[in-house]
Amino acid sequence: MKTTITPEERRRREALLADERRFDALLEAALRVPVAANAGGQPQGAPRPRPRWPAFAAVAASMVLAAALWLGLQTRPPADVSPLGAEIIAHILHEPASLAVTAGTVPAQEFDEVLRRGRAGLAQPVGPVSYAKLCPFRGEMVAHFVVQGEKGPVTVMLLPDEEVVGPTPIDEEGFVGTIVPMEGGGSAAIVGTPDEDIEIIRDRLQQAVHWRL
């Protein structure tokens, strides 16, 4: 198991640092409230009057605005799509033969070999497997296979080196799916067509997959 930072973790840290830089800029702008040198009509040379409430109110309002914007930055929904999901879809599109609707199945021994070389195994069947291949993905060899779902092929990629903090949706190029964390680390991507109930296959995988690390 790798201990180095993943691209997803690096992206999140960079986004957090960017938010902190935005907050610093907002706070600095809030504190730069201009005050006229002759505010209040005092003659030149006269003792400087004590600050009036409106000036303090302006500073306070600006700081409240900066704080509100900061909270908005922290609570905004993620607008960017996970790059991991985009790479998974690109990989699927790179192997169009895997998306064939077929009644044929991969021989069990061949499927087990793909799983073994992908450092994974299944404790129980997950459905009829119509495609299985060991594929390069982000510098590692991973198991890529297809289970025939109720509406069509459902792609599964077992990713022992890719961590996600929780289920991460995929919705690109006419595919929908999810990347889910697996027990013991790593993750699995399950992708199908929009009318496919991928939760059935997701649940089977989470109960069946174990790593050979």
- Annotation field: number of helices: 5
Largest beta sheet: strand ordering: 2-3-4-7-6-5
Q: Estimate percent helicity.
A: 25-40%
Radius of gyration: 27 Å
The amount of beta strand, in percent, is 15-25%
Explain the overall architecture:
There is one protein chain. This protein is α+β, with helices and mostly antiparallel strands and 213 residues long. It is built from 5 helices and 8 strands, in the order H-H-H-H-E-E-E-E-E-E-E-H-E. The chain has helices spanning 7-31, 53-75, 83-94, 108-117, 198-208; strands at residues 120-122, 129-137, 140-148, 153-159, 168-172, 175-181, 187-192, 209-211. Strand 6 (175-181) and strand 7 (187-192) form a beta hairpin.
Quick recap:
Helix content is 38%, strand content 23%. It is α+β, with helices and mostly antiparallel strands and 213 residues long.
Defining key terms:
about 210 residues, elongated, about 25% strand, alpha+beta, six-stranded antiparallel sheet, 8 strands
Architecture blueprint of SSEs:
Layout: H1 7-31, H2 53-75, H3 83-94, H4 108-117, E1 120-122, E2 129-137, E3 140-148, E4 153-159, E5 168-172, E6 175-181, E7 187-192, H5 198-208, E8 209-211
Antiparallel strand pairs: 1-8, 2-3, 3-4, 4-7, 5-6, 6-7
